[in-house]
Amino acid sequence: NAGVTQTPKFRILKIGQSMTLQCTQDMNHNYMYWYRQDPGMGLKLIYYSVGAGITDKGEVPNGYNVSRSTTEDFPLRLELAAPSQTSVYFCASSYSFLAGGNEQFFGPGTRLTVL
Amino acid sequence: AQKITQTQPGMFVQEKEAVTLDCTYDTSDPSYGLFWYKQPSSGEMIFLIYQGSYDQQNATEGRYSLNFQKARKSANLVISASQLGDSAMYFCAMREVPSGGSYIPTFGRGTSLIVHP
Fold first, then answer.
1. By Cβ atoms counted within 10 A, which residue in A76, A83, A110, B34 is the most buried?
2. CA-CA distance, A31 to B77, in Å (whole number)?
3. Inter-chain Cβ pairs, chain A and chain B, closer than 8 A
């Protein structure tokens, strides 16, 4: 199993540009998440999904959009990039958030810089 | 108010010694889970250990143990026999069972651990 994969690893955007961060998991997990990690900070949840076709906002959703058309894929879309979106983005997945002990599996992250 | 508080921005420990990383949490839900993750300088997030709110015993995973004090709402990570490879950021996280409303897992700001030879 590849686990959770993310592309690209690095990206530099100009202000106002758009891009999609890709995330794929091959563990058949229903639950998927997008986080951002700002320097010296913990993770903040942007969006999450409990299954194909179902998404919901997290703590910091403004400026982002997601879709979940399949169990495997959970892309994150940035529209009109702003310098405040410079961060490291992590995608994660888990079996369930209702069952105990089901940790999240994280992708390697995407380092995004908006200039 | 923060749901997860890690008060130690940085910790230093001598190789082979034990170290405790502090984590306190805030929730009114009776059912919740607490996690610790390690983030080395390479950036990936690595799951270390989990404690459920109803678990009677403290969780252990190899050299990692979780000192769970429910009444104090603390879930400290204890690393025994520190190794140089333990140098990393450590994050405490909580997952509450939602009773309606959005589910938002919460991470602390992390503690940087440096292990000296």
1. B34
2. 26
3. 59
